[in-house]
Amino acid sequence: METLLLVEDDVGLQKQLRWQLEGFSLQMAGCRSDAIACLRRFEPKVVLLDLGLPPDAEGVSEGLKTLEELLALMPMTKVIVLTGNTDRENAVRAVALGAYDFCQKPFEPQVLALILERAFALHRLEAENSSLKTLQTSTPLQGIVTHDPVMQQLCKTVKRVATSEVTVLVNGESGTGKELFARATHHLSPRSEQRLVAINCAAIPENLLESELFGYEKGAFTGASKQTIGRIEYAQGGTLFLDEIGDLPLSLQAKLLRFLQERVIERLGGRAEIPVNVRVVCATHQNLAELIKQGRFREDLYYRLSEIVLKVPPLRMRPGDIALLANVFLEKYAASQGRSLRGFKPEAMATLTHYAWPGNVRELENVIKRVSVMAEGPYVGTPDLGLDVTEEGGAETPAPLNLRQVREEAERKAILDAMAQTEGNILQAAALLGVSRPTLYGLMHQYKIR
Ligand SMILES: Nc1ncnc2c1ncn2[C@@H]1O[C@H](COP(=O)(O)OP(=O)(O)OP(=O)(O)O)[C@@H](O)[C@H]1O
């Protein structure tokens, strides 16, 4: 039962309201000092406050003072001011001071009930948002926001391997944050004062990639008018980040392997072997084992590159991160737009956590960027998201196999939802689902949810 504080000195009204407010655990106070004592003791989320309190029962000065003190102690508390029916002006003054709403005497029970319900709902929403904001501060690696246990483990691994010279391969779907891990590996390494040179192997045409990587001497080919050093040499002393390594053409794979084995390069058209000291980090969204089977990637190169493999899970496998990242991005982009969007309505958050996010964090970030420009606010609703939720991230949903499959799928989703809502707190998630903790563990094991 929710705790509600009623600050009212009129015994008749106290009685009437006590009866109307039966659904709450009601605390009463008849003056300012009692009201403050009750606030400290019971921490009510919502307060009903009569402005006419002794010693100024006919005026509003004591009531407004009480309002200010209540809000100074618990700014999140929603104070609903009770006023006489001719007292609109003072009601507005109270709202300007931070009261959530007002209600004029004589009260219509339904109106009061509705105002109370909305006040509690708003309090809940703000509390959820603020707890998410506190949690977000724990970014395990610079720029990486996560509460997912697998991601946290990856962050730990990065911290550990960053100081060594091992070659790191970051693997994961597009938009999962591979580049963030690659950059963190450099920034935490002893080479962080030197350059991080990145090259996207998929973005450069095959015929240019070789000279881009290895450089060339003057006259090496038509148009080679001056000696030019390549990316590998440019990274001397620092880190070389080879993005989309799965797209490296076979011809260059052999050349890269030689460099990794001997740590020397030859510029195109040159004969000198130039020693280069770089740490190599690479990333790909492709399944390299599959490419090896198809003969499109050299196995020996794979073994050279994959001394440490970081497998970044897709966003849909990190249920708690969707809510966390959505809030972090909303705060960031709303601020940059000068907009005061305060959070997501519960149904919008449910839509976000149900969506499959084929484009992972990048897609989520883009959705929230758009929302921060377009949403009316102050709370973001489902229509503001502009997500095609019927398509579940574009994947066509096949017809279910049987009732058991439908039930299991629904159960799995409900568990993921509960975990998202409680940021992975098993005890709270179990309570939300109405099962015991061991039962929830059992189900998570059954559905392979970590
Ligand atoms: N955990 C995270 N916390 C904060 N921002 C993130 C996180 N993961 C990804 N991002 C953001 O999402 C976007 C995509 O991340 P990134 O470029 O690292 O992904 P990627 O896996 O390298 O993608 P691609 O394979 O397409 O190159 C970036 O703007 C990045 O800052």
Structural topology:
Blueprint lengths: L2 E5 L3 H10 L4 E5 L2 H11 L3 E5 L10 H13 L4 E6 L4 H9 L4 E4 L4 H28 L12 H14 L5 E4 L6 H10 L8 E5 L5 H9 E2 L11 E2 L1 H4 L4 E5 L6 H13 L1 E2 L8 E2 L3 E6 L3 H6 L5 H7 L2 E4 L7 H18 L6 E2 L1 H9 L5 H15 L4 E2 L1 H4 L17 H19 L4 H8 L3 H10 L4
Parallel strand pairs: 1-2, 1-3, 3-4, 4-5, 6-13, 6-14, 7-10, 10-13, 15-16
Antiparallel strand pairs: 8-9, 11-12
Bound molecules: adenosine-5'-triphosphate (ATP).
Describe this structure in words.
The protein has 450 residues and is α/β, with parallel strands linked by helices. The chain has 4 domains: 133 residues, Response regulator (Rossmann fold), CATH 3.40.50; 163 residues, P-loop containing nucleotide triphosphate hydrolases (Rossmann fold), CATH 3.40.50; 82 residues, Helicase, Ruva Protein, domain 3, CATH 1.10.8; 53 residues, Orthogonal Bundle (Arc Repressor Mutant, subunit A), CATH 1.10.10. Helices cover 48% and strands 14% of the residues. The strands form 5 sheets. A 5-stranded parallel beta sheet has the order 2-1-3-4-5, sandwiched between helices. A 5-stranded parallel beta sheet has the order 7-10-13-6-14. A two-stranded antiparallel ribbon has the order 8-9. β1, α1 and β2 form a beta-alpha-beta unit. α2 packs parallel to α3 and α5 packs across α13. The longest helix has 28 residues. The chain starts with a strand and ends with a helix. The relative contact order is 0.08. Adenosine-5'-triphosphate binds next to α7 and α15. InterPro entries: AAA+_ATPase (IPR003593), AAA_lid_NorR (IPR058031), CheY-like_superfamily (IPR011006), Homeodomain-like_sf (IPR009057), HTH_Fis (IPR002197), P-loop_NTPase (IPR027417), PEP-CTERM_resp_reg (IPR014264), Sig_transdc_resp-reg_receiver (IPR001789). It comes from Ferrovum myxofaciens. Keywords: Activator, ATP-binding, DNA-binding, Nucleotide-binding, Phosphoprotein, Transcription, Transcription regulation. GO terms for molecular function: ATP binding; sequence-specific DNA binding.
